[in-house]
Structure formats: structure tokens, C-alpha cells
Amino acid sequence: MKLSDLKNPFNRGGSEGDSDNDLGFGTSITNAGQRLINRDGSFNIVRRGMAAWRPYQSLVEMSWAHFLAVVALFYIATNALFAAIFVFIGVDSLSGVQAGNSFAEDFVLAFFFSIQTFTTVGYGAISPTSPASNIVASLDALVGLMSFALATGLLFARFSKPKASILFSNNGVIRPYRDTPYNSFQFQIVNRRNNRLINLQAKVTISWVENLNGEKIRRFALLELERDRVFLFPLNWVIVHIINKDSPLWGRTEEEVRAMEPEFIALIQAYDETFAQDVHANSSYTCDEVFWNRRFERMYFPDENGQTVLELERVHHIVALEEEE
User: Fold this and answer.
1) Which of 166, 174, 226, 290 is the most exposed place for a label (fewest CB within 10 A)?
2) pLDDT of 21 strictly over 90
């Protein structure tokens, strides 16, 4: 399928045109007002049943807070397990541990001995003396070496994973397009990092609800943009769809647009010079997140030194059209 095929006008009456523009969500309605894409770009889908789970993928993709919590939990649980084995064998098999202590005291001493073995620190204050304790200590050291190797690989994978840090405005706007009789749908993005993103491409798809023979179905159409590509991204980018005769929003009032229950799905793709790879980011806007007759506040201005200052927090600022630009 070619990109030009997606730019054909949407088909209101047939299903063939919709199958070309369908993003993979299907045309059936699940819940009224349910969004397809969450604001963070994730799918609003809950997988149940025979979903495949891969530990490596989960550990690389989860948040840093969850990852560090998993590492800490694994570290404590593994050493606690080996400590319990040492206590079960008998702490008298460990030199430097006095017999006759309580279970809690024996467990604490065995736990810290396991940590020393697990991390290969080996202070020498406690050491195994019996064959059983030596075998357990050997297994402890082996698990420790393998765990640190895996943790090192996961840390490298997480740090080296290319990820765009593109910030989408909280809201979109529908406003007149310059000095023309047309309205336009707009939202803006900005790069939160100080790295170089080049060859940015933007695609915006609209999903809306229609009644066809008494049945609600979901329609899709790729929106034609005023500009769908920029070569450099030093400032913000206001992405504009002109609501002309080829637009699904043509001739509709605000109430009619809201009745369509539209969702504007945005996909941004760029080349990141830091990682020398393509990165992407996506988000969406529901009709409740789109304001009419508003505009975005200017994000950049020159300072007294002749430099251009870009205020990132202004990406979310919208004001009334009557206010002076």
C-alpha cells in the first residue's frame, strides 16, 4: 500500500476505503467515547488469555522506578533464600558464626554472608567449612555472577534504547486558518531534549463514529497536513490540518463534530543523530481535548543577547483568538 493511497478521500458508504485507512483497531464500536490511543502513546487495549510474556522485553520497556524495584526485590529475595538454606544446613558450618543464637540472629548473619558471596566481596570474617555449606556458597556465587551479567546487559539495553522525548501539547485547537474561509485543526510538539532530530515526518489520522443502517461503526481517514515534514527541529512545530472539502470535518459545527466522537491520532517519526536511528512518538486527542477558537501562545522570543529562547512549558498554553499575538 502506498502513502498516496491513504491520502484518497475517505469512503463514507463503503468498507473498502476504510480498510485502507484502518489503523488495526477495526470498525466495531466497543464503548462510546473510548479512546484508541492513550496520551502517552500506548494502546488503550487490555490483553487477556494467551498473551505472551517475555521477561527481557518487560524489563527493558518498564519504567525506571519499576525496574529498580524489581532488581532490589530480586536481590533481597535471592539472598534471603540462600540465607534460609544456610540456616537449614546449620550455621555451625560457617566459621565465624557463634552457635546458640536465636533464629533471627542466625538468619541475619547468614543473609549478610550470602550478600558477600553473591557480590564476590568476601570480607573473610565468615567462611563455609562443611561440604554442604561450600556447595551452597558455590551456587550462591554462580547465581550472583549470572545475575550481575544479566543486570549489566539490561542496564545497557535500557540506556542505549533510542526513544524520542517529543512533548505533545495537552490540547488541540480548531481555529480559522490564516486569512482563508477555512478552519483548521492544530496541535503542537516540541523536543524536550537538546539533541538533534532531523527529517521529522508527521501523520495524523482521524477516527470517528457513524451510524450505518442503525449500527454504529468506526471510520478512519488520514488527514492531509499543511506540512507533513520538517528537516530540522530546533523550535516547536505547530502541525496543521486544513479543514477543506476533502476533510471529514468539512462544513460541520462544533456540536456536529462532538457528535462524531472524533479522535485525532498523531504519529511523529524522526532520525535521532545521537543514536543514529529512527525514533517515533505518538499521542491522540479526543473531542474533549480540542478547543474551538483558540490559538497557541508563542513559545520563543529573542533575548537581550541576540539569542532565541524557547520556553518548553509554553507548549501547553492556549489563549483566545482575540488576544494579541
Assistant:
1) 226
2) no
Contact assessment for residue 18 and residue 219, using Cβ atoms and an 8 Å cutoff: yes
- Are β-strands 215-223 and 183-191 bridged in parallel, bridged antiparallel, or unpaired? unpaired
Q: What is the pTM of this model?
A: 0.73
- Cα 142 off chain centre by: 35
C-alpha cell at 107: 538468619
The residue with greater pLDDT, 235 or 5, is: 235
CA distance linking residue 74 with residue 92, whole number of Å: 27
Domains of the chain are 15-48+166-320 (2.60.40.1400), 55-160 (1.10.287.70)
Beta carbons of 269 and 200 less than 8 angstroms apart: yes
Query: 255-268, pLDDT tens digit by residue?
Result: 999 988 899 999 99
- Please state, in angstroms and rounded to a whole number, the distance separating the CA atoms of residues 89 and 182: 81
Other CB atoms within 10 Å distance of the CB of residue 265: 23
All three cell numbers of 311? 520556553
For CA atoms 105, 111, 117, 121, give the dihedral sign. Answer: negative
CA nearest to 256, candidates 220, 218, 294, 292: 292
Region label for 162, one of left (φ > 0), alpha (ψ between -120 and 50) or beta (otherwise): beta
Q: How confident is the model at residue 238 (pLDDT cuts 50, 70, 90)?
A: very high
Q: Are 189 and 167 in contact (CB under 8 A)?
A: yes
- Round to whole Å and give the CA distance between 20 and 221: 9
Q: Is the pLDDT of residue 175 over 90?
A: yes
SS3 label, residue 51: coil
